[in-house]
Amino acid sequence: MARAQHRQRMNDMDETSPRRRFADAAREERPDLALLCLLMGMVADDGLDEAGIDEAQIELDRLAGEVPFAPGGPAAWADALARVLGERYGFRGSAADYRRLDSSLLHQVLRRRSGLPILLSLVWMEVGRRAGAPVYGVALPGHFVVGFGDPYGDHVLADPFDGGRRLSGEDAALLVSGVTGAPPEPSVLGPADPLDIMLRILNNVRAWAAARPERTNVQLWAVELALLLPSHPARLRYERAQLLVERGDFLTGARELEEYAEVVGVMEPEAAEAVRRQAHAARARLN
Which family does the UniProt entry place this protein in (predicted)? Predict the structure, then answer.
């Protein structure tokens, strides 16, 4: 059912649309995270066009050109990126960034030089990769950072939200324990998968919009892009159906609620029945 729905959504999209291109890019053997974020930006911002995407990619290339090539080991790479991005160009975050949708949009983060930890980390990763740095993303709970070097050997961590400040093991443990109440598991410190990073960015957008009832349009496109990723939580289909009903598309929302009920019915019959009642109530609102 899920694969059939994906095929139908793909068939319904123009091949040149940002959503279709996002879906195609997410299924590449090596997904281009910067491109995925910029295509998300096209969905979010009508003012971002092909020229704007090119400008963002050129800016990442330009910044990479200012990083010294092969300055040394992991610590030297981390310091080199911090000098260029954190000190010279002032990329860093603040509490106010959590209140702005722009803080999750790569083209706006490049323009403002400020954003959420995960988007600033993305800038560090993309600039570092272009400069030849052994850089990777580290998805700490509640606070995304970057690593340099061998994630399972000699490496250092840095916090782009704090201008690229290097993190000790104790610093990282405090960041994690502040969210989870426990020290970090070794797996948390490994490289984050690009599509997992993309899903986390979309989850941030969903959370931002969910706190603002007037922005259900933003929550809807964030859910719909997440559903285009090869792997995503099944419950996103339920969230999309609820949003459609909330926005007045009762028929489509009811149909998707019923389809979701079929999916969960085998394992959770009571939950499925509750969803079917929601679908019935949505159809009743058509009368």
Answer: Belongs to the UPF0162 family.
